[in-house]
Amino acid sequence: MKVGIVGIGHSRFGRRDDVTVQELAFEPFVEALNDAGIARKDIGATIIGASPVYMTQRSIAGPITEYLGLNPQPVWLTEAACSSSAVALRTAYALISAGMHEIVLVLGVQKMLENPTSEVLKIMGRSGDVQWEAPYGTTFANYYAMYANSHMAKYGTTSEQMAAVAVKNHYYGAMNPLAMFQKEITIERALESRIIASPLRLFDCCANADGSAALIVTNEEKAKQLSDTPIWISGLGAATAPFSLLTRPELATLSSAVEASNIAYNQAKIQAQDIDVAEVHDCFTIAEIMAYEDLGFAERGKGGEFVEEAYIGGKVPINVDGGLKAKGHPVGATGCSQVVGIVKQLREEAGKSQVDGAEIGLTHNVGGHGQYCVVHIFSR
Amino acid sequence: MKVGIVGIGHSRFGRRDDVTVQELAFEPFVEALNDAGIARKDIGATIIGASPVYMTQRSIAGPITEYLGLNPQPVWLTEAACSSSAVALRTAYALISAGMHEIVLVLGVQKMLENPTSEVLKIMGRSGDVQWEAPYGTTFANYYAMYANSHMAKYGTTSEQMAAVAVKNHYYGAMNPLAMFQKEITIERALESRIIASPLRLFDCCANADGSAALIVTNEEKAKQLSDTPIWISGLGAATAPFSLLTRPELATLSSAVEASNIAYNQAKIQAQDIDVAEVHDCFTIAEIMAYEDLGFAERGKGGEFVEEAYIGGKVPINVDGGLKAKGHPVGATGCSQVVGIVKQLREEAGKSQVDGAEIGLTHNVGGHGQYCVVHIFSR
Q1: Which of B78, B69, B66 lies closest to B106 in space, CA to CA?
Q2: One of A329, A364, A369, A376 is an active-site residue; which one?
Q3: Is B283 a catalytic residue?
Q4: What domains sit in chain A, N to C, each tagged with a CATH number?
Q5: What percentage of chain A has pLDDT greater than the value 70?
Q6: Mean pLDDT, rounded, for A126-139
Q7: Active site includes A376?
Q8: Predicted ipTM?
Q9: What is the DSSP letter of B218?
Q10: DSSP string covering A190-232, please?
């Protein structure tokens, strides 16, 4: 039995002091209901993807459930750091395939900016190893700085190549009215920006953000009934990598991404070259370069050169909604946001950044510093 | 297709300064693997039930996965406050029924006592409404004190009846070598203990604890192959209740528990009177009395009188492993711990607290102050 997406919603990402977390959840919820043409009573269960540690309100599923008017339906939260809402979608797929629910709402939501930046960095850093690594100063940028240094040393990847990823994603972000940053940048500006964690500069890093996104997921029969353009989940891969850097044989790749994408390609019976459009987890520019390789789009070590192929018209248009880099990265919402981007592409509703004739899309959502990775493949 | 439990493990509950959270997770993991007669490589995915907010280490699934040697298998966390590991089991059921994994490890784990008590109370209180209720001092005991006052006013329930629940659960806790408290108490001692939140006294409240429990869950074919005594999950119910007390029509019941148990009974095609043994969520003594009624064991309003029927030999032996009250309540581990108790009963491995010939068991795991409830029914 196939499982499909028939409704999507996406809030404006960025600083959202104008709303509570419940109100932020409400925005894409209503949009997704309307898109699917269903009422809230049609929802059988809701899975919320969020990292609970950024919010004063604990166990956020309770207040959101009430605010959205979903009682007494079951609701719970899934957490896998930055891939929290990708595992929420995986859970929804399982609930529907198992016949336990007919329609499941997947809701990714996160408010990070009510905390001071120093607190956000500390909380985020603590999803790395607090016992053996945090004492040496491992914030999140530090992990990816180590990956970047390793990739540069091993393959000759350059700061210019990393900056080119930022230029591309801001180019597309400028077309996305929901993105946190809607201005193009130049390679010079990126290269002149201040060092955050060497070799990563400000423009190599995505920004903490507030945001939310929602998906209405259902079984094959219901999907065909509700939508003329259901988007099918044709492959699902999830994997983990060793948590401690010490135990990873190498830093220039995320083994979880290699593993998860292979599982997803096998299930969908396709190969990397069959992907028409992809959303990859560019929390840092080096992360996108590593993703090119880990997902099989570029040869190992050639990721730095691949960015030109990731524009529309290239081999695989990637992050043409702006990616985490331009949209901002509200941890729990990012996985859902990526799926919204791909659904729009496969429905041919992506406006200025539409990839002509896109039929197969992929999302790559990395959790933490790569200890989790979830890859989904979609087809129309 | 049926889904069954073929392996269980349970750590000692209580103050566990002797172990890290990873080591605490390891204890029931190894026990469950040995019990099921499988190796770690046989596990397809792991769902961890835990509340992430009590730990300095964020996104705990990553370090636990590495420590247990489970990379590269997918692992994520589920959270629904105190019912976090019941929704983990619900997720595992879905993954197996959907054919996505053959064997799933469900692991409930929580270390709370590394925080000072005042901090634990504050964190726990924040799973209630931080905007409208916390400013009035709603710690967890306060919520249940309101329920108790309501139940007393409406039905004439007495402090003696609440104390009798504590006496029963400590009576059975004294037989459980893994319980935090292994001493019997008297009704006088309970009634003389200090007020925590009127009318609740110290002995009306369960204790914060460290602890862990694990389940190996698999499909029908594999379960029959691995075990002579697989325990089947024959009914699953999950529901939510309004989050804010303001919006609840009444405080002497948890509508989520009524809803969840009805769903589970219907799926299992049984009624309350068919249950041979149950584990209910006695975070406070009044919670057990409300559960008697919400689950249909006692008539509405007669819960206070029912405690004598909840001993072995009575109508439905309840919490005969000591319940949260005597075992302690390590938030994320409690749901799994309840299931371990029922599996032991249905396997006739419960030792001194065995209910003769128990064939059908129930677990009732409440999250927060009742905004979540998960009910599972098991049969042998």
Answers
A1: B78
A2: A329
A3: no
A4: 3-115+208-226 (3.40.47.10)
A5: 100
A6: 88
A7: no
A8: 0.97
A9: E
A10: HHHSPEEETTEEGGGB--B-BEEEEEEEEEHHHHHHH-SS-EE
